[in-house]
Amino acid sequence: MEELNSYRIIRSLARSGFEIFHEKGKMLLIFSKYFSVVHVWLIPNRYNIGIVNRTQSSGRKMTTVIDGKAFAVGLRKKIGDSVSSLINEHNIKPALAVVLVGEDPASQVYVRNKGKQTLEAGMDSIEHKLPVDTSEEDLLSLVDQLNNDPKINGILVQLPLPKQIDESRVINTISVEKDVDGFHIENVGKLSIGEESLVPCTPAGCIMLLKDHLGSLSGKNAVVVGRSNIVGKPVSMLLLKESCTVTITHSRTQDLPSVCREADILIAAVGVPEMIKGEWVKPGAVVIDVGINRVSTDEGKTKLVGDVDFKAAMEVAGAATPVPGGVGPMTIACLLRNTVIAACRQHNVEIPEAIKSF
Ligand code: NDP
């Protein structure tokens, strides 16, 4: 709750013409057009405000760290409020069913977090855990059962699936209206022709963060590194919908650094740790790092890094998302949003204004 209140204050400062730099949730530097810099320390129940120098030692304006974690907290609050009004006004309690096949540790963590956050938003969460040797036929029959259950509004089958199961067959068996991952071929097609659809969660999260930071994206040069069906392609479609000029790049792209240097908006979804270097970034660009890579440290431990060399990018970019704490937290928040949207459409009820658009 404390975090939420702080976030609200920060948002309202931002709306009053302040520009915000957020460092690891502990200290905030707030730039004003009129005074140099006001800085705020986040101390529970108290805010200290003081004036500091506006520029880094180089004289360059500081880069904004886009705080996806704080944005996701705000979005989940709006989703929770929307769920309350759906329950109170229409007696609809959205429900999300998540299916996990096997015991992949990363997938187990994702599924646990999805269930926890679904419940926290006031929705019903149903988990189906199946053994690793589940047959495709058995999984398809469970999906069919969930498709026909009127109490279930959203279905998510956690990927990757064991090799005996054809992923695309499973995804395309999920009812289009309940496909909250937005991976069904019909939702993919609708997205590509600009029709109303359930939009993939991570790409939706990227666009929300970009619009929150930049306002209109119209006319910007956007470069997407990666062309996967779950991130690269759908995020490119969404950028196009926002009237960006979009370049999609991949492992065969020639002179990728030069292509990236043209980007006002640079989105990295590659899966190669810190591949995008500082000198690939156009000065002032907004960099969105989707990558989540676990790497070993010199101390024999492991840590998460993105696809962008964050420290180097921070020297050049206008704004950038960190890893962790950038795009990652947006994915589950957008999944919850999709579940509420799916429930509204299934019951022919207006989608709550607070979560309707990006
Ligand atoms: P994929 O492996 O499906 O796709 C990777 C893409 O990157 C491919 O299009 C590939 O090109 C391209 N690529 C690989 N190497 C290079 C290179 N050297 N130069 C240029 N392009 C290259 O990955 P995903 O899209 O599924 O995921 C990308 C990253 O995002 C991963 O780190 C993943 O963990 C993370 N992720 C994070 C999520 C979140 O919630 N934040 C959600 C989903 C993914 P080609 O097609 O030619 O092979």
String of helices and strands: HEEEEEHEHEHEHHHEHEHEEEEHEHH
User: How many beta-strand runs?
Assistant: 15
Rg calculated over all Cα atoms = 21 Å
State the shape: globular
Task: Provide the helix percentage.
Answer: 25-40%
Main structural class: alpha/beta
Mean pLDDT: 89
Instruction: Indicate the CATH architecture of the largest domain.
Output: 3-Layer(aba) Sandwich
CATH superfamily of the largest domain: Leucine Dehydrogenase, chain A, domain 1
**Which ligands appear in the coordinates?**
NADPH dihydro-nicotinamide-adenine-dinucleotide phosphate
Largest sheet: 6 strands, parallel
Q: How many separate domains make up the residues?
A: 3
Strand content: 15-25%
Q: Catalogue the unreliable spans.
A: 22-26, 32-39, 43-57
Strand order of the main beta sheet, please?
A: 5-15-12-11-9-10
Give the CATH level 1 class of the largest domain. Answer: Alpha Beta
Q: What is the terminal-to-terminal distance?
A: 23 Å
Write down the CATH topology of the largest domain. Rossmann fold
Number of DSSP helices? 12
Please write out the topology:
Blueprint: H1 2-15, E1 19-23, E2 27-31, E3 37-43, E4 46-52, E5 64-65, H2 68-90, E6 95-101, H3 105-120, E7 124-130, H4 136-147, E8 154-157, H5 167-171, H6 185-192, H7 201-214, E9 221-225, H8 232-241, E10 245-249, H9 256-260, E11 265-268, E12 286-289, E13 293-296, E14 302-305, H10 310-314, E15 319-320, H11 328-346, H12 353-356
Parallel strand pairs: 5-15, 6-7, 6-8, 9-10, 9-11, 11-12, 12-15
Antiparallel strand pairs: 1-2, 2-3, 3-4, 13-14
Helix pairs in contact: 1-2, 2-11, 3-11, 7-8, 7-11
The protein binds NADPH dihydro-nicotinamide-adenine-dinucleotide phosphate.
NADPH dihydro-nicotinamide-adenine-dinucleotide phosphate binds at residues 202, 225-228, 230-232, 250-253, 256, 269-272, 290-293, 327-328, 331.
